[in-house]
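ugh finaly. both done.
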Amino acid sequence: MKQEILEAVKEAKEHSQPRNFTQSMDVIITIQDLDINKPENRFEEEVSLPHGRGKDVNIAFIADGELAVQAKNAGADLIINKEDLEELGKDRKAAKKMASRYNFFVAQADFMPLVGRFLGPVLGPRKKMPKPVPANIKPDPILGRLKNTVKVRIKDQPVIQTMVGTQDMDAEMIAENIDAILGILDQNLEKGRNQIKTMYIKTTMGPVVKVI
């Protein structure tokens, strides 16, 4: 299947019309023989793409003290302290806006009760509750991994659609990113990638190209 994926990626790139922004490359996979009414068949996983997303990821880090300083130096896009949490808890509109803007949230572990209290109602439904980390951890590796991470989920339909790169990335790199997504299917489905019914690849605004 690797060759078929590579050819489809190349075709999707070729058929994509020039736009005034860098388009994402998406893979769309339909799963067969899967009863999504059973909770055990629904899942959400984070996948670190071997060649990255090709686009920036916005990460908010909830911490104070030395960890907050290190997170900012390591490239966190937003630092939220205790006072900020309380303010966001009072302003639901601002909290929702922030929740939509940032892809991932990380929180100092002892902040989690406050996060749950002030931001839980906003982040929870969006599946963006923070990853708790110890106050003495080095944030660089965490932020580095998250910047290459996409989410793969099966929820209401037996369909997965996720970003696997951008149109200006090398086709082989995108194909290897897609293979990382297929590895998640092998981990979560009884028959792994053999349960794929259809697979398509497309750019954000381009036509779909069928793999299988």
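ok and the 2nd:
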Amino acid sequence: MEINILTGQIIGAAIEVHKNLGPGLLESAYEECLCHELTLRKLAYKRQLPLPVKYKGLRLDCG
């Protein structure tokens, strides 16, 4: 899938979740609903993958 189309679909899914839930909930609630929205849109995803974080030349083990 072309990257701009995929990006638009992901952002659209996130906006849909936020429109329905509003602000102020825990991250876990948004994550669960976003995963459901991505599934409804037939978009593949993986949850909570570890990613390396670098900050000003320092590699952090928090990602």
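summary for the 2nd one i guess: The chain has a mean pLDDT of 94.
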